[in-house]
Amino acid sequence: MKKIITVHIAEKVFQIEDDAYAYLNRVLSMQLKKQELEVEIAEKLGQKLEGSKTVVTYPDVVDVLYQLGFSASDAYETAQGTKKLYRQPEHKVLAGVCTGLGEYFDIDPVIIRVLFVIAFFFGSLGFWLYLVLWIVIPRANKKIKS
Fold this sequence. Notes:
The protein is mainly α. The chain has helices spanning 18-29, 34-48, 58-67, 72-80, 97-105, 109-121, 125-136, and strands at residues 4-9, 12-17, 55-56. It has a three-stranded mixed β-sheet.
């Protein structure tokens, strides 16, 4: 027996299983463009509930997120609660390194940028560190379809 929760996603009401809600909530909490993603998720979940089905299940959520460009490994990692470090080129100033670090450590990217600038003026350590991180950290490939 599973617990059912009533949630609002993009101004639509859904009844969703507890585990599916927990997974969807983790995925949404890691995204920058939550409102746009919520609208797409609500539309696709609405399509899943056509007919006599009234409750969104965990496989429904995984399928919808897969349709929106999240890979199966992303789904597994998110379900396990682990984070991965990625550069975020959609919200970059130079290469998205600071934005990626900010998301990973839940810190404002401006603080990380300031630290890199300070490190740059003290022996150019900031430049070399940023360059190495730019090369080493993989680029995020999660894009919201328009």
